[in-house]
Amino acid sequence: MAAMNTPAPSTRPDQSPISRDQLAWLEQQADHLQVAAEHELRAAGASGLTELALIRALQSPRWQLIEPVTFSDPTALYPVHFLLFHALYRLQSELAQASETLVISPLRLCILTTGSGNTRALPAEEDPLRSFYLDISRYFLSGHDIRGMMERFLAGVTLAGSPEDVQEAAQVLGFDTLPGDFDTVKQRFRRRVMQAHPDRGGRTEDIQELNRAFSVLKRHFTRQ
């Protein structure tokens, strides 16, 4: 399986139609990612993986499907993120036919058997995020569009905030149960970000995961 070391361009200044070669390259990469992602998620069990953990697994020697990526650069991260989620939503459709559900949330990716303690519904065709990621042409976005989309994501605009997502977000910040107020969340978030700062031996990826968790909880308390 070839690594994503010569990716098709993620932007098309002239917005011309996707060429056959570009489409073939994207579909081939998505096929590889789908097979590898299913393997890794089944190995992880019901606890699942975060997106960053899955990316690292797909970068490992056993797969070598994704090159090193600068996680702090949205325009560099987006093509990897989009194609991976395109593959995941395709896999979700296939698993639904076998009475399995691929949970795709901001904080966890996992495969569950429908009817075995799984309270998640099967994928809904009207889900706007699902529709977005299944449209392969969305791989090609301008840098401006990518930055705007990532800002909205981190602000919690696109997060549904299901009970499962909210509980997982609380756990990422170190809470056993959801706090009763947002001020407690903010205090814990600041402390965890300081601990995870690269100057203190942390990683940018860890801070991004904390940001996602904070966004989910912010959206949750705003809606109350």
From TrEMBL:
InterPro entries per UniProt: DnaJ-related_N, DnaJ_domain, J_dom_sf
CDD domains hit by this protein: DnaJ (cd06257)
Keyword Chaperone annotated: yes
Organism superkingdom: Bacteria
Stretches assigned to the J domain: 168-224
Signal peptide range in chain numbering: none
SUPFAM superfamilies: Chaperone J-domain (SSF46565)
Coiled coil regions in record: none
Keywords of this entry: Chaperone
Pfam families on file: DNAJ_related (PF12339)
Descriptive protein name: Molecular chaperone DnaJ
Organism (species): Marinobacter vinifirmus
Lineage: Bacteria, Pseudomonadati, Pseudomonadota, Gammaproteobacteria, Pseudomonadales
